[in-house]
Here is the input.
Amino acid sequence: MRNFREITLVGVLVLASLATAGETATLKKLYEQHRWFELREALKSHKEAPALYLGAVASAFNDVKGAEKYLNRAIELAPNSDDAAEAHEMLGYLYARSGRYHDVVQQLDLIRKIRPGRADVENVRTIYAAFSQHPDQSVARYRPTLLHADVSKAGVVLPVSIHGKTVHWLLDTDFNLPAMSESEARLLGVTVDEVSAQVEDSAGGATKVRTAFVDELAIGDIHLQNVSFLIVPDSQPPMDGLPPGSRGLVGFPIAFALRSIGWKSDGTFEIGFALRRDANSERNLFFDGISPVTRVKSEGKELDFILDTGNVAGTQLWRRFADDFATLMKQRGTKSKQTVTEVSGSNEREITVLPEIQLRVGGLDTMLRPASVFSKPVGDEFHHGLLGMDVFSQAREVRIDFRSMTFELRP
Here is the structure.
């Protein structure tokens, strides 16, 4: 009997070990695929979850204190590991969202020590090192406000005040930094740095930019201090097609500082609306790096789309969508080409055209007719696509709340 019990105990321990290994492998796969909703659910039943994964989920859902706690713990456990480099990178994104320039540079320098020679890190550090010569971005005054915006399929254009002058710039929630053209900087009396760096776009292109700093910027009754900008040549899209006074982008760090934004089809734009306490309100937003991403439903599947108010050319479907809907692509798709215009310029890309696709976005059923599925180099492997103004304009009202991490389209 004694031997039997010992054998049984050994068998139980082996099975438990295999189960734990299987759970860890599942967590690792979800982490590597940036499937933050699924990883968050999986971690709830995991007793000893890796700190890196806990920190990644906390960052994705805008839990700043939790992200710092777990990501710093992951770094302490293995300071010179790949996990540590990834934790530093996620902390860098966390700080970049809110304009904490000095903390971003610190995290980039720590990555350089662990993994020297990364060209992407060196390029981004050049930009944030220029920003860090100034104080971090901050909110000087915050009062909920209503104003009028130009709202159409061509985007949401907001009045922005700098140095006593008002310009009208496109709201672009997926442009990682505020931007203006060289001529716009001269118009506003903004000094441009001589720092030169490169920015890449989602279509696989890149362009040279410089940097600048604005000591105060106002949108309605919201006043921000120490806002840093990318300076884009006037010869590059979208600046080349815009008149003076419109050659700028209200990029993500400004949008995030506004905390909650909403607009109606009649042009009413609201900042700082009351936080909803509805228990049934779905928290359907998360951050992947700096990009805001929303959960979308189609054909019984849950999909992840980047929320891009600056995308006025039309919603894009990417490789992950093609993989998840392979049968549909084969049965109904037709090959074609489409010109994609990003900050680096215009390029013709291969697409598969579907006659139509229904997407439930922010609680509203929307339709793409037709729907363009892009091949590489457009897009990435983590998201199903990029939502644009053709979807948002199907709603009477759009609401984005970065405090409760909710996104709504109202009929």
About this structure: DSSP finds twelve helices and 24 strands in the chain. Residues 1-19 have pLDDT under 50 and may be disordered. Residues 2-32 form the longest helix (31 residues). Residues 72 and 87 are 7 Å apart (CA to CA).
